[in-house]
Amino acid sequence: MWIPAGRSWWRGRALAPWASGPARPRLPWSRPAPTHAVATDPRAPSRPYGSAELKETPDMSRFPVEDIRNFSIIAHVDHGKSTLADRLLELTGTIEKTTNNKQVLDKLQVERERGITVKAQTASLFYSFGGKQYLLNLIDTPGHVDFSYEVSRSLSACQGVLLVVDANEGIQAQTVANFFLAFEAQLSVIPVINKIDLKNADPERVEKQIEKVFDIPSEECIKISAKLGTNVESVLHAVIERIPPPKVHRNNPLKALVFDSTFDQYRGVIANVALFDGMVSKGDKIVSAHTLKTYEVNEVGILVPNEQSTHKLYAGQVGYLIAGMKTVTEAQIGDTLYLHKHPVEPLPGFKSAKPMVFAGMYPIDQSEYNNLKSAIEKLTLNDSSVTVHRDSSLALGAGWRLGFLGLLHMEVFNQRLEQEYNASVILTTPTVPYKAVLASAKLIKVVKYLIPLCMSTNRELHKGVKVAEKLYFLKKMCNLLGSIMAIISSSFLLASFDYEDAGYQTAELVKMDILLNGNIVEELTTVVHKDKAYSVGKTICERLKDSLPRQLFEIAIQASIGSKVIARETVKAYRKNVLAKCYGGDITRKMKLLKRQAEGKKKLRKIGNIEVPKDAFIKVLKTQPNK
Ligand SMILES: Nc1nc2c(ncn2[C@@H]2O[C@H](COP(=O)(O)OP(=O)(O)OP(=O)(O)O)[C@@H](O)[C@H]2O)c(=O)[nH]1
């Protein structure tokens, strides 16, 4: 793991657009001289007011601003965020303490199956400390770089973070990237060294690393085992002592930030809100700054971690709000909600995500187009880092071109569509966009191809790492299209990677045609890197051979660049006698089989005199080897 030479390497970074208020004179993460009233007697009894006591609607007015702490748990992937969240929920009595509590905030099926967090989740905890009861709003965030947009949005609702670092692995790429996000948002950072129970744990080494890399005094690190629960209570104490309460004004009119949204079939949009000013309750008339539509609030509440309705929510608190928003274009993430009678200046919202890879998405059956459209809209409400543009393909019909933050993100989105919306889709091979320079407007002859060139914007990174990173990128990018995907799987490089559009660069790409008995199959024409053309062409020919039904004549499948054939497969002739099984049999059965064959033919596309079933295209396009 690389460690920067100097301590001041991070200084001078620009603030994120949503970071508001004047810069603090002190380092944002160093332990503040508490300006807020904090209990000083650590032996004071801790009397959790847990969900068991939430049989009655909780009175949120019991929590003045100074008794509220809003914080996120951030870390590199698998360093133990969700396990720490489990212990915090147990310690505060929010959930019963059982041995079954394993990553309880990972609610999605995809999270359970893959064992990773992909969605940030909020939970409100009640915790008594020094004879006072606090409201702690915790947001557990994903660790994988593909979901870092979740982290940046979550931080907008917080004043501090727990930066969890594995006592064995030490600082990793996402530790650095997430630290930056917290730093840019001017949040207090509490370093937590986790997994001290591991045999190879070396918390002292990690402590020094944290001091060196982040300039946080080692005595501020809290060493815990989230798995065993060791020393976890001191994390809660630190949250209260080191994270300031939110700077908000309850006497001002309502100003609520929508930092997450889900779509419920029956209740419409459920917006997760952080109240920056004022208060909101059932029956209030509110306006969306995004659509300027007015709504009546049907329900407000907190997440413990499931929804628990409350009479009101007050500035400084984090919860949910339902206001009869029935379509996904309402209550967009980043929207500001305000009272109908008291318009306010909207909050800055969020930077839009920068997609890294693009793939085509099509319904398996075109009659499912509208259902799939609705499913994509609902899911992108919950995952606003996906970009969606309408697209169409000769072979696959009407669909969309989707942009994702990485390959894992693409897979998870696809899996969520299937699991949460019962959608079956064709997802084409992911790629990056490219341009072709034509010989002239009239002459469609490609002079050269250009691929997008990215420039790392992490100027603070250590020179050695940066140079290596750039070289790796440039080498890869110049060598083959789509190489960014290879880098995406390299967690370290990508995690420290941000990019700006740096224009396009010439690449050695060629147009490759696929032919059936000499006729070009337009649907399968593709652009590949020169060095990869043979292997891609060969694989496409082989897959086409496997999926083309035999016909009455031989079929030559060829891959060619211009007039040069680079790969070939042959489908042998075959006469399919559908009536063979009905030899001497019943005439109605024969008619049925002939009818079924005729129906099947409707799904065929004729190329020359060859009938190609749609399935063949799907198999080839879906599984096309990486260009
Ligand atoms: N030995 C040990 N294992 C731990 C500890 N905390 C977490 N783990 C294990 O580390 C693995 C990852 O834990 P998670 O809590 O899912 O990590 P995470 O940071 O939330 O993971 P992502 O959200 O996917 O980034 C799991 O197998 C946990 O059981 C700990 O204190 N000690």
Automatic annotation (TrEMBL):
GO cellular component: a single term: mitochondrial inner membrane
Keyword Membrane in annotation: yes
Annotated Gene3D superfamilies: Elongation factor 4, C-terminal domain, Elongation Factor G (Translational Gtpase), domain 3, P-loop containing nucleotide triphosphate hydrolases, Translation factors
GO molecular function: GTP binding; GTPase activity; mitochondrial ribosome binding
Domain of life, source organism: Eukaryota
Keyword terms, alphabetized: GTP-binding, Hydrolase, Membrane, Mitochondrion, Mitochondrion inner membrane, Nucleotide-binding, Protein biosynthesis
Residues at which GTP binds: 75-82, 140-144, 194-197
Cellular compartments annotated: Mitochondrion inner membrane
Domain Tr-type G: 66-247
Catalytic activity: GTP + H2O = GDP + phosphate + H(+)
Matches recorded under InterPro entries: EF-4, EFG_III/V, EFTu-like_2, G_TR_CS, LepA_C_sf, LepA_CTD, P-loop_NTPase, Small_GTP-bd
Segments for region (Disordered): 21-56
Bilayer topology annotation: Peripheral membrane protein
One GO BP annotation of this record: translation
Assigned protein family: Belongs to the GTP-binding elongation factor family. LepA subfamily.
Function: Promotes mitochondrial protein synthesis. May act as a fidelity factor of the translation reaction, by catalyzing a one-codon backward translocation of tRNAs on improperly translocated ribosomes. Binds to mitochondrial ribosomes in a GTP-dependent manner.
PANTHER family, A to Z: TRANSLATION FACTOR GUF1, MITOCHONDRIAL, TRANSLATION FACTOR GUF1-RELATED
Protein name: Translation factor GUF1, mitochondrial
